Amino acid sequence: CHTSGMLTPNGKEYAQKIPREELTHLILRLLQAWKEPLSNFNHHIEHHQELPDDSLSKAKQISNMVHELKTGVEKVTEKMQSMGIISNSLNGMASSEGTGLSISNEANMMSDSDFIHCFRRDSNKVQSYLKILKCRIMPENSC
Hints:
The protein is mainly alpha-helical. About 65% of the residues lie in helices and about 0% in strands.
């Protein structure tokens, strides 16, 4: 996976120990790391004539959802900063330079099944991290 070099906590217990700012930064980095590979994947599968239109549509929908989720996390981050929940040290860290990853061709060289496996793995991480972050920010949700 092209994000394998990214340091992420191994397991929920470790993720719960990460400070809010670092967890927020990690979420943004993971989402940003998938922007270009998902775009390339969409471009790649558009040329597979044997794929049904529904598959192409779903791939584009996934890319759009990742982009919307990243935008949403950025807005929540701004709100948390304005409320003093986290510092302003995350500004500009969601850019591709801020991810610390060189996308290169690694994501492009993966088979479709490996690509989907890696995306699912990282999607699960983002989902878990968002749940942990939500529980920290809004403990009244009895997490």
